[in-house]
Task: structure prediction
Amino acid sequence: MRPRRPDPHTLAGAYALDAVTAANRARFERHLASCPACAGELAEFGEATARLAAAVAADPPGGLVQRVVVSAARTPQLPPAAARPSARWRVPHARQPRTFRPGRLPAHPRQRLRARLALALAAVFLGGAAASGAIALTAEHRLGVAELREHQIAQVLTAPDAVMLTARAEPRGTVTVVMSHRYRSLVLTTAGLPPLPDGRRYQLWLMGPSGDRSAGLLPPPHHGMTSPVIATGLGRGDRLGLTVALDGSRRPASAPVLMLNLTT
Amino acid sequence: VPDADLGALLGEVARGDQTAFEGVCAHSAATVFGVVRSVVRDPFQAEEVCQEVLLEVWRCASRFQPGRGSAMAWVTTIAHRRAVDRVRAERRLAQREQRATAHAIAYDEVAEAVQARLDQERVRRCLGALTELQRESVTLAYYGGYTFREVAGLLGVAEGTVKTRMRDGLIRLRDCLGAGR
Result:
């Protein structure tokens, strides 16, 4: 597209501000490895951007740090790396959950991008789930319903046609959905939905050309988040609804707190 | 908090010290959350990314090299990049979905939101000392999470110019912030 490539050094500012695409980032990091002057300049820029960050400091919501400290206790650490010139600037990417193997990455660049996206999603979902202590993909495997469900969830998250949607619920909270028409399924998590009184649960609905059907109840939240649930039997043209249900009742007890159009 | 303390704590974290990690969180969680929230905007997602960042600090503490910059710069670099990765993934998905949830935010919007929270007088003053184009480029990129190409589009300026303004803007900012620190 561009006949001449400009001097990578001109990217130093944009790189320090993370204002580069992944491709530019990689290109600049290659340059950085052989340019001690750049590394020095970048280190100084890092101090300046750290001040930009400190200037907007805000206390995180209560409980966040405690949750992180608890999660850290069961998160393995990286061993020290061999020293390399630009190692400080290599920021680790979303990690792949240890017990979660997506298979070989396909060679086609677009598929690879998708696979990486799916991996990132998987890390978000499973990471979030691990943090909430709800889903435990541990070594102690018992074949059972729970494991099958985890497998199905992993399948949707890594599906080549996986699409992620995020929507705001009424009056508050967010619902995140990853859906795959190939597997006719969607995986859903929520954060920050208002807690419900005893005897009431959030209920999922799929509504569309093949009728309205219940897709199950959400588990009770843990630290405000619900662990991933999977809804199967997704059809083209379906919408997703979330209502409040009385335990044991099949009829919604409220107007939908969320209606999400699933058309892609 | 003296940065040397944070650096020393990171060294202990690298050896698996959980109490030291609590100290690191106490020192850096507000800065991490602040910068993540500024970029990601959605409070729930900001919370999620903030947790990821702090866990990443735990996981990768051994990669921190004190000789190559301050501990706070190391932590905020992780935080900012994670936040940017998240907000860009969201924007891509929103585009794919053709949903209007993540439209381009005008410079004024970002600037206003940031200005309200720029509580550090010195940073405000130093940003104010930049040329308008430098300030817009740096602010949109750092607090808005936009690439230099997107910034060029938003400002209607050539990409090369924006790239250059980001660099000389940071140089001026560095000099202004560093002097008499």
User: Anything to note?
Assistant: Chain A touches chain B through 72 residues (CB under 8 Å).
